[in-house]
Amino acid sequence: MAVYLDNSATTKPCPEAAAAVENMLTENYGNPSSLHGLGIDAMKTVTAARQAIADKLGCERDEIYFTSGATEANNLAIFGAASAMKRRGNKIVSTAIEHESVMQALDELEKQGFEIVRLMPDGKGKISAADLRDAVDEKTILVSMMYINNEVGSVLPVEKIRKIVTLKNSPALVHIDCVQAFGKVDVRPKKLGADLVSITAHKIHGVKGSGALYVKKGTIIHPRTFGGEQEKRLRPGTEAAPLIAGFGAAVEALPDFTQQSRQIAELNKYARERLGTLEGVIINSGEDASPYIINAYIPTFMRSQTVLQWLYSNCGICVSNGSACAKGKRSHVLTAMKLSDEIIDKSIRISFSRYNTKSDVDALYEALRELTEKYPR
Predict the structure, then answer these.
(1) What pLDDT score was predicted for residue 33?
(2) What's the distance, CA 257 to chain centroid?
(3) For residue 269, what are the CA distances in angstroms to 88, 274, 275?
(4) Closest by CA position to 59, among listed 191, 221, 241
């Protein structure tokens, strides 16, 4: 059985989510928009999932819009906000270490004439609140920033965005990509002052293909797709009811934040201590980064992609070399952090879930010890 340490890419569906999906596929399979009994039952399940997510976010049920995942949620938030706000300005502030779904959306808007400001991180992937304050002005119509970076785990100053927007008399909407935060820290859009928040199921032991966008009541963004009444016409199309049911079940199965955070923090500390005994290993993630993610340089002549393949082929261990959506491309996050080419090309990401144990860390340690001894730099 594989030692799975790639939870920032995706997580193993929990039993509750798998059972909910199976039920919707085999028993409660009606179209949620149909008015007969099976359709009504399916809609009740979709509504229950929407309520579970709203309860976890501390918001109202009708502020949750289902999407196919975080990529669609991010695109809907960014393009929808830019379209709705373009008469009030053309400046968008973000960072150079966002997920590809944000980075590429902003690249497209830049081609369309929007001014895009990409804040640069320090050597640990942290973004300066002072830089954010300097960037926002009266022409800024959107600030889009992730809560926790998916490659190095740095925590960005999202809690200060709303205060800065208000201070600068900016009309900007606030979008926060909470994909790596939801289910791990207590994400509350109202407390964050967010207008838009993106989340997804498969990072919290739900199933792939279901995400959600929180849209604060009264916030106007324009749709990207057309053709139905679902999701109040903001995201039309037949709801993926089985996947949504799994999303809701995964949310309801989330453990207490305090207990889970303590468990993961202990595991992170143990992993850092073990990795620290391997000569030449460098931890790229800061001490104050999310405990769910450790990005580390591995001293071997192999590039990171080869390290991943060796770990899985020889030891059955799954890690990554960055965002799964980048599909092996050189990390734009580590590049933005201005790390050396050697470190960028030979770093891996280790990411935990509540199902990981110290024995998983021990297996990784032994595998990396063997690898660095056999194939030194």
Answers:
(1) 93
(2) 17
(3) 47, 9, 10
(4) 191
- Catalytic residue at 178? no
The Cα 242–Cα 229 span in angstroms is 19
Instruction: Compute the distance between CA of residue 18 and CA of residue 27 in angstroms, rounded to an integer.
Output: 14
The residue from 14, 59, 178, 325 that is catalytic is: 325
- Answer whether 321's CB lies under 8 Å from 346's CB: no
| Pairwise CA distance, residues 317 & 311, whole Å | 5
CB contact set of 249 (below 8 Å; sequence gap of 6+): 14, 16, 17, 19, 20, 49, 206
Q: How far apart are CA 218 and CA 112, in angstroms?
A: 27
Which among 125, 133, 182, 110 has a CA at the least distance from the CA of 155? 125
CB 204 within 8 Å of CB 252: no
Residue indicated by tokens 């990529």: 71
**Beta strands per DSSP E along the chain:** 3-4, 64-67, 91-95, 115-119, 140-146, 173-177, 196-200, 211-215, 282-283, 293-297, 317-318, 347-351
Nearest alpha carbon to residue 343 among 353, 333, 352, 351: 333
| Residue 297 backbone dihedrals phi, psi, to 5 degrees | -80, 130
Q: Which residues of the chain have pLDDT under 70?
A: 323-328
What integer pLDDT is reported at residue 328 of this predicted model?
A: 62
From 327, 324, 328, 322, select the one nearest 285 (Cα to Cα): 322
In sequence order, what are the residues at sequence separation of 6 or more whose Cβ sits closer than 8 angstroms to the Cβ of residue 262? none
**What's the pTM?**
0.96
What local confidence, expressed as pLDDT, does residue 57 receive?
98
The full DSSP string for 175-212 is: EEE-TTTBTTB---HHHHT-SEEEEESTTTTS-TT-EE
The Cα–Cα gap between 44 and 59 comes to: 19
> For position 323, what pLDDT does the model report?
63
Q: Report d(CA 208, CA 76) in Å as an integer.
A: 18
